[in-house]
Amino acid sequence: MEILPCCQLSFALAAPERLDPRIALERALGRCPLAEVEETILQSIPYSGFPAAVESLGWLRELHPEADPFPRNETSQPKSFFEQIYGDGQEKVRASLRDRHGDLERWIIEFAYGTVMESSWLSPDAIEALAVSSLIGQARLRPLHSHLRGALRTGHTRKSLTLLLDSLQKVADPKVLRAAAKMLERECSSD
Q: Which of 29, 53, 128, 163 is the most buried (most CB within 10 A)?
């Protein structure tokens, strides 16, 4: 999968004021298979919400009316996706979610990680690259840090994540990119 055009689409769905989602969609369609672009939009739901997905899937169908919606993958990731992303820190994350609201832990684990992410046919590292891109677009630094760690856990390298950050240079908030680069530096130097 050529991930960077889909990462830019994920970013645009999270930050439409910084990158027009229609332009990002058309660029992604020019470089990636339709199925990957559609799955990118579906994977954006936990980060950018249903309205962004509904709108962008509508644009996708306008551009490709002949394409049938792809069937959902009935297989799941081999290991809990939440566990893959958070590793030994998963209980700390669960407790943090419970502290914020009684339903938040269940909603995030069952819907975002269970329904959306575990049903995807994309690899865990691709899903994490999309998450990182979306969180950069939203300037959500705390979850961004967690998902940078998750990206490293799922197989990304410092180099691949640096390439991802570089691909967002023209559209992302420079302060957020600097913060992300510092987080990545700390995570990679602590090994």
A: 128
